[in-house]
Amino acid sequence: MNESSDSLYQTLLPGGSHWSMRVKAGSALRLTDVEGNANLGMLFYNPENLLERYNAPDTLKCQHTFRLTAGHCLYSDMGRIFCGIEQDTFGWHDTVCGTMNAGLAEQRFGALNYQQARNERHQNGYDSFLVELAKYGLGKRDMAACVNWFSKVTVDDEGNLALDARPKPTASITLRFAMDTLVIMHTCPHPLTESDSYPRAAVTVELLANTAPLPAHCLSQEENRGTTMIQTSSRLIKDAVYRAQVGAGDYWLHRIEAGQTLRIVDSEGNQAADTLFFNADDIGERYSMTDTLRGQKNVFLTAGTVLRSNDDRPMLEIVADTCGRHDTLGGACSTESNTVRYSLEKRHMHACRDSWMLAIAAHPQYGLSKQDITHNINFFMNVPVTAQGGLTFADGLSAPGKYVELVAKMNILVLISNCPQLNNPCNGYNPTPIEVAVWTTCATKHRESTMFTCVLIANRGAIAVRIIRTLKQMGVRAVAVYAEADRHSLHVRQADEAFCLGDGSVRETYLDQDKLFAIAKQCGAEAIHPGYGFLSENASFVERCRQQEVIFLGPTPQQMAAFGLKHSARQLAQDNQVPLLPGSGLLRDLEQALVSAREIGYPVMLKSTAGGGGIGMQRCDDAEILSEAFTRVKRLAGNNFADDGVFLEKFVADARHIEVQIFGDGEGNVIALGERDCSAQRRNQKVIEETPAPNLPQPIREALAQTAVRLGKAVNYRSAGTVEYVYDVSSEQFYFLEVNTRLQVEHGVTEMVYGVDIVSWMVQLGAGCLPPLSSLAVSAPQGHAIQVRLYAEDPAKQFQPCAGLLSHVSFPSAPADAELRIDSWIDSGSEVSPFYDPMLAKVIIHAANRHQALNALSQTLRNSSLYGIETNLDYLRHLLNQPAVREGKVITATLGCVTYQPATLDVIAPGTLTSIQDATGRRGYWHVGVPPSGPFDSRSFRLGNRLLGNDEQAAGLEITLRGPTLRFNQDCAIVISGATIDVRLDNQPLPMWQVCNVSAGQTLSLGQVDGEGCRSYLLLAGGIDCPEPTIAQR
């Protein structure tokens, strides 16, 4: 290959290869198609700000052209010029068809031809771009529009696209760069290639140094209105489950579910709805102009068009269109273009991109950023294209009331900017309102027309996620609230909308009723679901809901006053001849509490009258403990439930905690859904729950249900509730404990054995469309269900709550012959806040019988993994092997007698550069810029594991310079290998290169590394438990 005289650098890119380089401002690239049938795909980025990249709509609309050739410039999405086309002997280059992916390549060339090409290191364009992008820390979300040099995509007056494959050997193009630019390229086939073999054509790339002025813009403005396709809709606006008006200059951000229909209406006939579409479950997947246009081989969007993603998957389909044509080439206006087009006084008005950025900033829960703003659609805009490549603006297609309807093929996040178009020739800033509507099908067929369209969830964590799941199944818009500490929580990301409650304590966020009602009004919520805890049993909140004309999904204020406050519930139980434990009324002060305790007789339980979940409860064996606990329990109750009332109750030593799930319609009808055994408690906090209760005499089982129903009917109970009892094992007598006027944490086990959705019942009841309870009543439970509560707490430190980053979260699929349900708010990368209840998940198993359920739950926990902070996962595994649990003989005091020594190390001091390693390390990723790794002295590492009888892959600690100080929480055998290091166990020297036994509670100090080498190793029997990383090295 001979270099040109004006060339500073020259290289040959074989067909199917990829390459990248940084080009300085003023320099030029000359590209030459060696054989005449090349396709050179190219991406452009600002190397100083990689969020600035080539933008096809800006490039086309600013020059009123569909074609790129000499005289044209390539614009960035910041409105700046990357480069100009200085010279072009080819004549027409493609900027709308994108690049070929693996699926297209295999479909186009056949699996055999494409696989052969891959074997010879020829890849598809999409993967080639990804390999090059990875070198600069970029990925799929950063892949914007590309230009396909030497590929002529023709267009006729009907908008149909075709590839002109006539060869032009030695055709060349020269690009003169106006700014420093990162250029990424590949020489893979064009996506419209009709060949049945994988074509490979080389391209030469030359870097030219001499500067020259940029070419002038080509402003060809041939005008052709083209044809349109009109398709009306039979949907009635009164049947829409959601409606909104988007004001002039405003934005609309909304989630729609797969199968739902979105209608966008041009209210006054002169608007452009600049719209972005994202996969709501994977923001990196979004609407792609290139995939859509090449998929239908036409540049016009109208009825029948399938909008495709950058993964080349169908996102939405246009099913109705009274406008007839919509623009996907014209892009969106920026602040700069607003300033030029409109008067200086109006330059502050929002541009389309400004509105999108405002939406992104206001709704961080969706995880969007500027890099996600790529291709958009301008609904109701007419941007004709001619066969000569002309591109211009034309009006006359839209009119007041024109609309377009789209059916979602996946869960979609929609972002609309209702701002002027850059192509719009008007001289005044004149955006007008648009309307949006969503249709769906209500989950219930009974009185369907009364179902809510929007429900606000006044809670957080796992229960908020659980409620969102049901609302989505019912087609009801779910609105979440969140404190600043929960900004990235799963319930925020899964909700259709989410609103921030600000920083502060629980009282200042989730318990702030003023904020909640303001949000309910703002989002149009017709009902509020309180979940459990927080305001779920606060009668004053329910009354405020009534005053605000918002439906509270739960019992009435009067029922809460009767049942929700435990001391008054005792009186109601007594009036209905329900056995009661000795206890007190509501206590005014400590002095009254001490008097009542002496009358009842120690031990007693000091309990908050509001709330539940074990919060605000303490066993008091004498007056001293009661005196110390009184103020603290009142404070806990006030902080968590906005009610600090407390009372006393006699403590039963040999007790089981049994509860009955009830549901009432508020009209005197109440049913019972079996009982649950919640006896496995630690410090009054339930840990294991199951249904049916094991080893319970059938007469007792029936009496519990009958009593619960009787209590519910006494107050015409409405919605879900739970009647709790203490069951004295020795006397086989039960006593009324309390009624929880809310959904219980453990409701899931009941749902699984009875095949119901209690949350759905609550919503339907609130909307007035619940079928008669007699038709919902169930008989015998089917199988057995068990739940364990997974907490962020450290069993080695008195179960103190833990906060921090969960770097790895993994739950398995359901075991054979069992059904698994995980109610959780966490995933890998979740941040656990120290401000709220530390429950992470509820793991629920349903099987044919209790024995199978226990075995399946044990298997599930063994195969679950949480990493990053301490949790009670291993403690739960330990509990399931306890004889009392296996035999169903747990009482409330059982867990307090369980001995548990976690297989953990406490890091007293971290040392210098101590890391977890395994022998295999990481290999084979140099091609994407990731170096190999693993222990420096692999031989010493492996020998240490061999001395312990460990698997060769067992992880251990590599110590550099100076080692850590560690305290062992369980007996363990260890080996110290590698370079000589000062090792002491409880300040006594410890030998290297031999197995040493360490007892629980002992402290191992690893000091200075000296002698030959600079790496020492600590290997432990069984290795260190840590997750497999994405790229294989621990």
From TrEMBL:
<keyword id="KW-0067">ATP-binding</keyword>
<dbReference type="Pfam" id="PF09347">
    <property type="entry name" value="DUF1989"/>
</dbReference>
<dbReference type="InterPro" id="IPR005481">
    <property type="entry name" value="BC-like_N"/>
</dbReference>
<dbReference type="InterPro" id="IPR011054">
    <property type="entry name" value="Rudment_hybrid_motif"/>
</dbReference>
<dbReference type="Pfam" id="PF00289">
    <property type="entry name" value="Biotin_carb_N"/>
</dbReference>
<dbReference type="InterPro" id="IPR011761">
    <property type="entry name" value="ATP-grasp"/>
</dbReference>
<dbReference type="GO" id="GO:0046872">
    <property type="term" value="F:metal ion binding"/>
</dbReference>
<keyword id="KW-0378">Hydrolase</keyword>
<dbReference type="InterPro" id="IPR003778">
    <property type="entry name" value="CT_A_B"/>
</dbReference>
<dbReference type="InterPro" id="IPR017792">
    <property type="entry name" value="UAAP1"/>
</dbReference>
<feature type="domain" description="ATP-grasp">
    <location>
        <begin position="570"/>
        <end position="767"/>
    </location>
</feature>
<dbReference type="GO" id="GO:0016874">
    <property type="term" value="F:ligase activity"/>
</dbReference>
<keyword id="KW-0547">Nucleotide-binding</keyword>
<dbReference type="Pfam" id="PF02626">
    <property type="entry name" value="CT_A_B"/>
</dbReference>
<dbReference type="InterPro" id="IPR016185">
    <property type="entry name" value="PreATP-grasp_dom_sf"/>
</dbReference>
<dbReference type="GO" id="GO:0005524">
    <property type="term" value="F:ATP binding"/>
</dbReference>
<dbReference type="InterPro" id="IPR050856">
    <property type="entry name" value="Biotin_carboxylase_complex"/>
</dbReference>
<dbReference type="InterPro" id="IPR005482">
    <property type="entry name" value="Biotin_COase_C"/>
</dbReference>
<dbReference type="InterPro" id="IPR017791">
    <property type="entry name" value="UAAP2"/>
</dbReference>
<dbReference type="GO" id="GO:0016787">
    <property type="term" value="F:hydrolase activity"/>
</dbReference>
<dbReference type="Pfam" id="PF02785">
    <property type="entry name" value="Biotin_carb_C"/>
</dbReference>
<dbReference type="Pfam" id="PF02786">
    <property type="entry name" value="CPSase_L_D2"/>
</dbReference>
<keyword id="KW-0436">Ligase</keyword>
<dbReference type="InterPro" id="IPR018959">
    <property type="entry name" value="DUF1989"/>
</dbReference>
<dbReference type="InterPro" id="IPR005479">
    <property type="entry name" value="CPAse_ATP-bd"/>
</dbReference>
<protein>
    <recommendedName>
        <fullName>Biotin carboxylase</fullName>
    </recommendedName>
</protein>
<dbReference type="InterPro" id="IPR011764">
    <property type="entry name" value="Biotin_carboxylation_dom"/>
</dbReference>
<keyword id="KW-0092">Biotin</keyword>
<feature type="domain" description="Biotin carboxylation">
    <location>
        <begin position="451"/>
        <end position="900"/>
    </location>
</feature>
